[in-house]
Amino acid sequence: MATATTAPQRQFDPIWRVRARLLRRGALESWAMFRESKIGLTGLAVIAIFFVAGFVIHPVLWGGPTLPEWFPIAGGQKLWAPLWDGKIYDPILGRPLVWSEEHETYIFTDFPAPPSLRHWLGTDPYGRDILSQILHGIQAAFVLGIFAALITVFIGTTIGAIAAYYGGFVDTFFMRLADIILLFPLIAFLIVLSGLMQMDFWSLAIVLGIYGGFGSITIVLKSQALAIKVKPYIEAARVAGGGHGHIIFRHIIPNILPLSFLYMMFTVTSAIFSEAVLSFFGLVDIKMSWGLMINITRDAGYLGATNMMQFWWLWMPAGLCITFLCAAFYLVGRGLDEIVNPRLRAR
Amino acid sequence: MNPTATQPEISQVLRTKERDALVRIERLSKLYPVSKGLFARTRNFIHAVDDLSFEIGKGEVFGLIGESGCGKTTTGKLLVKLTDPTKGHIYLRDQERYPLLVTQGDRAIGAAAVRAPKGLTSLNHQQMTLLDVALPEGSDRRRFSELLQQLKRQGRSDPGRRAQGFILSAEIAGSVYSLVTPEYALSANIRTDSLAKSLEQLYYGDIAMLEGARLKSFRRNVQMIFQDPYESLNPRMTIFDIVNEPLAVQGIGSLLEREERVAEMLEHVGLTPASSFMFRFPHELSGGQRQRVAIARAMVLNPSFIVADEPTSMLDVSIRIGVMNLMLELREEFQISYLYITHDLAVARYMCDRIAVMYLGKIVEMGPTEEVIQNPLHPYTRALISAVPIPDPTMRRQPIELKGSITKPIDTQPRCRFYERCPLATSHCAEADHPPLVDKGNGHWAACYEI
Amino acid sequence: MTIATAAHKAPMLEVQDLTMHYFTRKGEVKAVDDVTFTLYKGEALGLVGESGCGKTSIAITLLRLLPENALFKKGHVFFYRPYDPQKAQRYIGFPVKIVQNGNEAYTGRLREVRSDAQLLLQARTNGRFQEIPVQVDPKAHFGVDLIALDEPRLQEIRWKGISMIFQAAMNALNPVYKVGDQIAEAINTHTPGQPPDQVREKIAQLFQLVGIDPAMIDRYPHEYSGGMKQRAIIAMALSCDPDLIIADEPTTALDVIVQDKILREMRVIQKKLNMSMIYISHDIAVIAEVSDKIGVMYAGKMVEVARCETIFQRPVHPYTKALMSAFPSIKGERRKLESMPGEPPDLIKPPLGCRFHPRCPYATEQCAKEDPAFKPQHEEHFAACWHPLS
């Protein structure tokens, strides 16, 4: 065996730079694997489309840059004002058009109006533009879904790792709690909760996040953490003198994080869905969301069995958006599944 | 008692201490509860390790041989404190531990072990840590502890006498007490009465009861190498992180110093150049390289004792010898002792100075490797050795047949564990307790009535 | 390349230029490359090599139990049985090989069984396909190419012709069925129509043969010890009276005393029933105990095949020699063992030329460029090396 000859002055890169490089390489490798999953890519594409529509197109259309006061034409107004008339297209405050001699425009005598050139997806029962409501709803869905999922994953990962590591009473307590939450009807619980407290956007996200975090994700992550806990490298860490915190945070959690991330995708789906249901019942204090759009349609009496198909543009765009965005996050989750579980991977 | 008559005793202690064991295990037992049936009330116990006693010398490779379920891995885990013993003691000779005598006039009234990381001469006695005390029969333990505390507070010393072994002295309640090394006591003709025996014990710390910070510092001395190099390295950590972990956990050195230490260690175990291995992940390395990383991790704290649990059994032949030779080289270089756990007698013969053969939680035979393998005494060892295949078709073996198969030591009968399968068993074996390990000469011990 | 059949022995299995790769995302793993060997009736061949050298891949290629990502490249595996015109009828249209009178051999696609003593083969001679009538000796050995067979015909050969004991097969016993019933099922599947009493009688005989108390037939697997389970698996492999058994690491998970017992019993059974055996193991000591002939594999290649004693006393290939000196023994002198430099190669990109050359102390430029042919070095001693040791 070659005995070591110590080089006089070894020059390493700073550790943080090496770590950044490793992180980048790891991300690229994961991306290369993810790219092979067709369903994952499909989901990602759909999410990207929604994202661009909600976070790029919508804010731009919403007004674009404001023109300076001195500007000869429409000074002080927003750039797209002629195109995107807040009076017409505002998803919440847009008001119905009435016939006017001086404007010489089309009149919508009856609201809701079907799709037209001016209102691509028609107008709602109050005469507001459906398309701008849809675009506005994207932001709500994204922010709520991801915020709730982050809370869920944070709680689920920590609790799962701790329950697996300590076992005994801690484990039993959190597992029974998860059982109770699993048996608990979420929607009914949220309805009751919204009666007890004013449920706004953020509080809904937090409630959904906490609810999810103590639920099934804990059981899944705990079982994964149990498999990690018995690995010899945990024993090696103990022999090195590592304490409980060290083992949980340096060894167990990094090894269950990929699975947490995967479950985060599924949690986004359920958060978006729950919000839609609650808004549909009109229980959330929210300005505009897809669920609320369907709620408005129902309240105005357009969701009856006889006239539902006739006024399809009132509910179908919102319904499809919920379906597509939920499905997209689910598909990304499935794509990630193939990275996390090598068994599913094609060789 | 005649004072001079006790002096040979203490010189005996001082003489043997040099060659003495690094690890000393006394009557170690580990029982695991098992419940038979789903709702069974009675608690039964597996005697995984039963009344084990042995010693491992400094720089010695001690092999623990046996079939699966014989308790060899449990013994290893007990020694690194991955699990706590049910009964018994594990004594470890600690480099930073010094036994001292407390004298009153020309008589020693008690002994205490103190911790002195940088040696006794530079010991700051006001902050010294007392590890253990030993007292003659009938002494008041509490009064002695108070006395030690007072000595700690009021003690004075001068460097000149310190170097001779006179640590400090103080006048308490009208009489002069001092703290001296056993060497000083010997030269100053201090009466030690019956303390000599317990003094010997003070060289060792019982690790069975360690907790908290003392357990953590114990970890620096004792490390472990695991069987499966694929499972014993965290797949999400780089090689640097893995080898650095013990240093980081123990808070040794700055990041830069640790980097250098890790690189030095990697080159020591043959992963050269270190810079090309440091920031790779375990899955990018072969089995042999991984096991070298595991060895580097175990060695990085400079331990005095390493438990190696079948470190080469998962490795391929062409790589195995390299790892085995590396372990032997490191032993020479750093004077490390190994407890080498294996089921493979041929490997044990290659690696170990002494071996102990285990059967159902008991040591049945122990002695120098060559002596045990060429001249086995216990019927189980004989059968085991006769069953080892030999990589040479010209050699014919004479296999010894054993009845039955290995069982689990659940609520064992008070007789020889090997009784049911033993070809030599007599009625005496059926009635008597499990035979004790008896020295049969040449340091060769066996536990059997019929040899 | 064909190996001339030794005149006095009946061939059992002839493997020619067998090549099988695995497809993976990183590239093609050249797991088995140009492997050639012959096994005779009543002979035990030990295949030894390190993990990933392709020894298990050979076994599953022989029986065509390949995973989905396996790419069969080329080669023949002729499985011989005594010539029987009735049985030969079954293989019309498939490649066969007839070996008779010592070294007379005919290879070709079987066209017709004209009479008990005459076959019509279609073979390629001088670049053209021709029909050749072959006079068959009644004592001829009739070989079918397992690689070319279709699934139903192959299924007839599995278990009845060749059975396999897989690595850690003792864990494959179904815990909810009695062991005897599981063996009975194997018998009934492969030789249907036997009365239950007879099957039971047969299982009792098998149990006695492998050293289990026949009273254990009606017990469940959890009542068996590890060694007994492995014996039951051996009994199951013997249940359809195969001509050849392939045992892949049959005793690796077992303790040394049990391993020794089972190996000795297998050796006795093999001699008693005059069966052929292929043992696969990483442990050269185990192989030395049970084999008549040893094949040493390295990195997907067969590097040396010879009789057991020959390979230990006069190894030709440097890898064989290094492998043997890397094994500690409990007998003989206690000497310092030399470790082989380097590591086994990545089979996606194996080294050019001889695959062992980067680790070989005798390697020359030629070794790095050209792949040495697997050729006879002495009588019944084959090796692939440019610089044979003896």
Structural write-up:
The complex is a heterotrimer of chains A (347), B (451) and C (390). The radius of gyration of chain A is 26 Å and the shape is globular. Chain A has 347 residues and is mostly helical. The longest helix of chain A is centred in the middle third of the chain and has 37 residues, at 130-166. Chain A contains twelve helices and no strands. In chain A, α2 crosses α12 (312-340). Chain A starts with 14 loop residues before the first helix and ends in a 7-residue tail after the last helix. Helix content of chain B is 34%, strand content 25%. Chain B contains 16 helices and 17 strands. Chain B has an eight-stranded mixed β-sheet with strand order 11-12-13-3-14-15-17-16, sandwiched between helices. In chain B, β12, α12 and β13 form a beta-alpha-beta unit. With 390 residues, chain C is of the alpha+beta class. Helices cover 26% and strands 31% of the residues of chain C. Chain C is built from eleven helices and 16 strands. Chain C has helices at 55-62, 85-89, 151-157, 179-190, 196-210, 226-238, 256-272, 284-290, 308-313, 318-325, 365-369; strands spanning 11-24, 27-40, 44-48, 70-82, 95-100, 104-115, 118-125, 128-135, 141-145, 162-165, 244-248, 276-281, 293-298, 301-307, 375-378, 381-383. In chain C, the strands form two sheets. An eight-stranded antiparallel β-sheet of chain C has the order 2-1-4-9-5-6-7-8. An eight-stranded mixed β-sheet of chain C has the order 10-11-12-3-13-14-16-15, sandwiched between helices. Chains B and C meet through α12, α13 and α15 of B and α7, α8, α9 and α10 of C.
